[in-house]
């Protein structure tokens, strides 16, 4: 029986775990916080897929490629879209309660850059939470071991292959977990930016560990910034589905500025809308723009109950007046390079979900393709991992942990790490955010390298997270400097767009 270790408990990780277990593998899931504290549970937007008879795989595939600025891998896109129908049926069989009309038919929604209303939602704007609920219940029912509050330290290697992982338990002790295959599904790295929709756990741990293990990464310059995030109080995403239902963006003069940016206005690809908002904010002294959903009026609380609660908690009434929004870091299109079965360049090491670079997103992710990618490629990775056989890791092998017990847990070091983490996030927002220049990226690279030299080795979960953030930030900056032209979500304000791709990226 193959032993599979899954690191992460979002849609990709839990799908991989369930699939591997169904193939006869002995599966263990470890997750840094609680089992449901993943980005999946925060996903308001729906899941895209070909489930209606008047839709087609060709149409969804074309939309995905167009939004990607033609940089997506056509084979990966085909695998994603062709597998979507079965993946959604599987979720329904697991008990995911997608929204239905009075006749019991699945309701469909439209989001940016889709040519057809193929988006399924659950609970209006609680799709991710509903999917996470069903997956966690299925994992529990299957008897899969889940270890919460367990932090990834490093991938364990033997003979150049992944043979398990070094982990830190809730008490701070480091131990080795043997496995025939390791699936990294730790999500993205939104916490590298000062303003993000991502949960606190999104610190790029899987990508950073894969890099240290020698795995190939790609596409790290492509960071998607969600256009509409509440600009009052803690960052809270206002789903693209709100604009799909007819909400519009206004500047201080009350003008729909997105009409000047793209023919599809508010429903243009996210990179276009986010930059249009940033430019409008710059013209009005940095103040946020307004999202006007008044035309939907009293329908808003029922259609978007999660957003409605967040809006009202801030003392706003979006059924009567526009609400302030601004962009925030949302999704990393790059990650650990995998084939269509989730295999990385390191034998025995797999990746899925936002941690992976499958090639399906290219320079810009199509709305609601992320949950679909998690389930389609999570299943592929889990199936392949269940068949994996590597040299077993034994406790007799030499194990030198990459964390230290001496000195670096002191209050001074903790304060230093808090300060560096805060400064890093501001630095990345300023120099490697929506608009980038060589001069700014060079400043960021120098500062990140300096921190990595100066900081002590990590001794606790806080130190491990900061090491991950610095590692991923350095890779984002490196990739952004290497791509000197603007394309998709990567915008170099000191360079012209790549001519052949300019039209496709809009």
Describe the model.
It contains 14 helices and 17 strands. By secondary structure, it is of the alpha/beta class. It folds into 2 domains: 288 residues, 3-Layer(bba) Sandwich (FAD/NAD(P)-binding domain), CATH 3.50.50; 105 residues, Alpha-Beta Complex (Flavocytochrome C3, Chain A, domain 1), CATH 3.90.700. The C terminus is likely disordered. It is an enzyme of class 1 (oxidoreductase).
CATH homologous group name of the largest domain: FAD/NAD(P)-binding domain
The total count of helices amounts to 14
Do you know the CATH architecture of the largest domain? Answer: 3-Layer(bba) Sandwich
CATH third-tier fold name of the largest domain: FAD/NAD(P)-binding domain
Q: Structural class, please?
A: alpha/beta
Helix % is 25-40%
The strands making up the biggest β-sheet line up spatially as 5-2-1-9-16
User: What is the domain tally?
Assistant: 2
Query: What profile does the largest beta sheet have?
Result: 5 strands, parallel
Rounded mean pLDDT is 92
Number of strands: 17
Please state the CA-atom Rg, rounded to the nearest Å: 22 Å
Uncertain regions: pLDDT < 50 for 5+ in a row? 395-399, 499-506
Gross morphology: globular
CATH class of the largest domain: Alpha Beta
User: Which range does the strand content fall in?
Assistant: 15-25%
């Amino acid at each position: 029986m193959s032993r599979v270790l899954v690191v992460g408990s979002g849609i990709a990780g839990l799908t991989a775990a369930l699939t591997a277990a169904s193939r006869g593998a002995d599966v263990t899931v470890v997750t840094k916080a609680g089992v449901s504290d993943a980005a999946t549970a925060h996903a308001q937007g729906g899941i895209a897929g070909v489930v209606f008879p008047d839709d087609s795989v060709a149409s969804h595939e074309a939309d995905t490629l167009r939004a990607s600025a033609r940089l997506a891998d056509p084979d990966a896109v085909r695998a994603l879209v062709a597998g979507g129908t079965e993946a959604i049926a599987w979720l329904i069989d697991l008990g995911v309660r997608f929204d239905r009309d009075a006749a019991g038919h699945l309701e469909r929604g439209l989001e940016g850059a889709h040519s057809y209303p193929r988006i399924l939602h659950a609970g209006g704007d609680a799709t991710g939470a509903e999917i996470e609920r069903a997956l966690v219940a299925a994992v529990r029912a299957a008897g899969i071991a889940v270890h919460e509050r367990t932090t990834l330290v490093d991938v364990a290697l033997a003979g150049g292959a992944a043979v398990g992982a070094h982990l830190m338990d809730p008490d701070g002790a480091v131990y080795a977990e043997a496995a025939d295959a390791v699936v990294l599904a730790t999500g993205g790295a939104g916490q590298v930016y000062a303003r993000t929709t991502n949960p606190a756990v999104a610190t790029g741990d899987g990508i950073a560990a894969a890099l240290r293990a020698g795995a190939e990464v790609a596409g790290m310059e492509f960071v998607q910034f969600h256009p509409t995030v509440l600009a009052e109080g803690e960052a809270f995403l206002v789903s693209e589905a709100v604009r799909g239902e007819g909400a519009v963006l206004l500047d201080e003069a009350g003008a729909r500025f997105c009409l000047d940016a793209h023919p599809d206005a508010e429903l243009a690809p996210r990179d276009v809308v986010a930059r249009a908002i940033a430019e409008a904010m710059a013209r009005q002294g940095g103040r946020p723009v307004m999202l006007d959903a008044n035309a939907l009026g009293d329908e808003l609380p029922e259609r978007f109950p999660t957003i409605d609660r967040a809006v009202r908690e801030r003392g706003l009434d979006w059924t009567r007046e526009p609400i302030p929004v601004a962009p925030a870091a949302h999704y990393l299109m790059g990650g650990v390079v995998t084939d269509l079965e989730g295999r990385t360049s390191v034998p025995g090491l797999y990746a899925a979900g936002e941690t992976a670079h499958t090639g399906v997103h290219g320079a810009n992710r199509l709305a609601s393709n992320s949950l679909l990618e998690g389930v389609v490629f999570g299943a592929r990775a889990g199936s392949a991992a269940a068949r994996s056989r590597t040299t077993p890791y034994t406790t007799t092998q030499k194990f030198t942990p990459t964390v230290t017990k001496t000195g670096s847990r002191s209050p001074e070091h903790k304060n230093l790490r808090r300060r560096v983490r805060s400064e890093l996030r501001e630095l990345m927002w300023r120099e490697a955010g929506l608009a980038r220049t060589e001069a700014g990226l060079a400043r960021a690279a120098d500062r990140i390298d300096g921190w990595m030299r100066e900081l002590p080795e990590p001794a606790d979960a806080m130190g491990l997270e900061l090491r991950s953030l610095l590692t991923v930030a350095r890779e984002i900056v490196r990739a952004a400097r290497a791509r000197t032209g603007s394309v998709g979500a990567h915008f170099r304000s000191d360079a012209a767009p790549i001519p052949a791709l300019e039209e496709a990226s809009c």
